[in-house]
């Protein structure tokens, strides 16, 4: 029967033991643990270059994790690296405004016109957290509506039915969040306008905002059904609620812009409607810490020093992150970048689907341009229930078998595979062959 050789990773094993002594759970973000894929030591990486990284034992991996999204140019992209070095030479933090921030704000605004005004912060979590505060300040209301399985970072309000990290770990919401806060959040199923209408009927006049990932990246890649976002915006507005798009994953993922500016994915176009506020992060930092939020002028003017909603940051808009972000967006603005990501991912999708068929493995692949998700099931995945109702043990086996062959995926059945500009056709071919061997082992079991 087919078999795949297990790699030895004595350094990762030893480092994990050591890390457990000092760092809670041995990891600085729970999604990095292997808890959802059978446990044990995660792989400790030492170096990344382009589409690859190497672990502490010298094993090479093709990287589809892309650091959960930001590394769309691959590791150590020369222009980004040069920008970071230049920034470091000039001092990485001033605590004063800089011209770079204006340049970057202009770049982002011209790609995403719903942003009359922006503010840079340090993470997606902060960006989302602040959009909620601003929406509450603007409307004078307290509640928010979110969608089951959408993850919006780890601030109190959005860590309810929050998706990938928490649901992978089997924690529906976090300890330490008072019921009084959780009770301000209403969760409804994604792609379900009736449920949204019902929630707004009941609580509408208390709802400050409806928060949504316009294209979901946190229970696999899931498109809004045609008309869903239009219906969502119309419903929210008819109740006087704001619409917040969390574009932390989606901005600059599928094209040079955000989901809200993309008219190439479906009809009616996603670009037919605009949110009131938008949260950004990941790709816009070029691999350094960043977040940003922005939106309509009159709403953003609620923020201090102009208005009564307070938000601040010692590290916010630091020259290193901003320089990396500018270099990253400049590289992404080159012609053909996104079409190539799309083509590589299409090839990968086709190869994975064919290999799964050949070995009788039930596999649903959701692909949106250069991002895809693999679900071990024989039904479509269009909402969180369907994403949960997939075979986690199959995924765990697949994850391990791919890892042993030098293909690194995220250790969760809910996370996407991200294509980078550094991946080559040879990498895709190698990945498809590895998947074929993995499926063959899985079907023989
Ligand atoms: N929103 C979305 C849609 C995300 O996917 C994430 C992170 N995976 C966040 C917000 C939080 O971003 P960060 O981890 O930078 O705080």
UniProtKB/TrEMBL annotation:
Its EC number(s): 5.4.3.8
Enzymatic class: isomerase
CDD domains: OAT_like
PANTHER family from the UniProt entry: GLUTAMATE-1-SEMIALDEHYDE 2,1-AMINOMUTASE (PTHR43713), GLUTAMATE-1-SEMIALDEHYDE 2,1-AMINOMUTASE 2 (PTHR43713:SF1)
Entries under HAMAP family matching the protein: HemL_aminotrans_3
Family recorded in the similarity comment: Belongs to the class-III pyridoxal-phosphate-dependent aminotransferase family. HemL subfamily.
Protein name: Glutamate-1-semialdehyde 2,1-aminomutase
Lineage of source species: Bacteria, Bacillati, Bacillota, Bacilli, Bacillales
């Amino acid at each position: 029967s087919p078999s795949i050789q297990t790699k030895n990773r004595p350094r990762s094993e030893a480092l994990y033991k050591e890390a457990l002594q000092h760092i809670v759970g041995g990891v600085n973000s729970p999604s990095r643990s292997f808890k959802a894929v059978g446990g044990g030591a995660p792989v400790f990486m030492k170096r990344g270059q382009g589409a690859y990284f190497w672990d502490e034992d010298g094993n090479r991996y093709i990287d589809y994790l892309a650091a959960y999204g930001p590394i769309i140019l691959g590791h150590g992209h020369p222009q980004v690296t040069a920008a970071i070095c230049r920034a470091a030479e000039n001092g990485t933090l001033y605590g004063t405004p800089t011209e770079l921030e204006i340049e970057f704000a202009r770049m982002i605004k011209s790609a995403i016109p719903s942003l009359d005004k922006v503010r840079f912060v340090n993470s997606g979590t902060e960006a989302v957290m602040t959009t909620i505060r601003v929406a509450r300040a603007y409307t004078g209301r307290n509640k928010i509506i979110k969608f089951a399985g959408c993850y919006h970072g780890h601030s109190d309000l959005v860590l309810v039915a929050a998706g990938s990290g928490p649901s992978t770990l089997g924690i529906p919401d976090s300890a330490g969040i008072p019921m009084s806060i959780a009770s301000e959040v209403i969760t409804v199923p994604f792609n379900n306008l009736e449920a949204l209408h019902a929630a707004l009927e009941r609580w509408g006049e208390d709802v400050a905002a409806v928060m949504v990932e316009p294209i979901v990246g946190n229970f696999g890649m899931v498109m809004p059904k045609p008309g869903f976002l239009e219906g969502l915006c119309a419903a929210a507005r008819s109740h006087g609620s704001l619409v917040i798009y969390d574009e932390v994953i989606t901005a600059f993922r599928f094209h040079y812009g955000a989901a809200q500016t993309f008219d190439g994915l479906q009809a009616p176009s996603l670009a037919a409607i605009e949110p009131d506020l938008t949260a950004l992060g990941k790709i816009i930092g070029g691999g350094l810490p960043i977040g940003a939020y922005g939106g309509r002028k009159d709403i953003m003017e609620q923020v201090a020093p102009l208005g009564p909603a307070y938000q601040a940051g010692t590290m916010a808009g630091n020259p290193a992150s901003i320089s990396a972000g500018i270099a990253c967006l400049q590289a992404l603005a080159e012609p053909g970048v996104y079409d190539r990501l799309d083509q590589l991912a299409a090839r990968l999708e086709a190869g994975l689907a064919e290999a799964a068929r050949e070995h009788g493995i039930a596999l649903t692949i959701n692909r949106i341009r250069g991002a895809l998700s693999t679900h071990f099931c024989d039904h479509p995945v269009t909402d969180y229930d369907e994403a949960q109702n997939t075979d986690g043990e199959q995924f765990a086996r697949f994850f391990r078998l791919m890892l042993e062959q030098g293909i690194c995926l995220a250790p969760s059945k809910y996370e996407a595979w991200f294509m980078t500009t550094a991946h080559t056709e040879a990498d895709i071919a190698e990945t498809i062959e590895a998947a074929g061997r993995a499926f063959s082992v899985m079907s023989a079991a």
